Amino acid sequence: MCGFVLQVILRSYYVQYYVTEKQKRYFNKKERVFLLFIFVGFQLLPLLYVFTTWFSFFDYNLPKWLGFPSTMLYGFGIWLFFRAHADLGKYWSPGLEIKEDHQLITIGVFKWVRHPMYAAFVAIAVAQVFMLQNWIVGPAFLILAIPFYLNRVHREERQLIRKFGDEYRNYMDLTNAIVPKKEQINFPLIFRKFKFTAKNKG
Hints:
The chain is mainly α.
């Protein structure tokens, strides 16, 4: 509930900025249906599960220690979602929109993945499976959001290729859509930096 309220409050800032510009919204009929699915899986069913016992028959029990990593994953998803908004700045829009002075953003979290907002929702959806231990409500967001993201990523990338051409194709070669490439995650280097820092503190 805290994560849900926090997300609504933070997102309202960017939506308000967008609405004041009186831009068009680029959601076709198919995407509106997909967004309805997301609303059901991410908001409606979890709220009903928290405040009613309608789905209690389908509950399952996981080890209690999973509560901490799943909550951390949920928190990471929220952070990533709004970090992506901040990195996009004025180029963000709720729909598929290319502005006149649009620039390709490849810094911040976009250095690691091309679609960090969708990656954030995947993290939140996976966390929901463990936080809401119910066979219906737990995986609802993850399952119901898949059609929207598959459709949206495909349309968005076609639009960006038309706008930026080879610049975006090169960016695609360097990054994955929602998960960093293995060569971007240099665990030995991270470990050496951590060991060096710990030694200096000692």
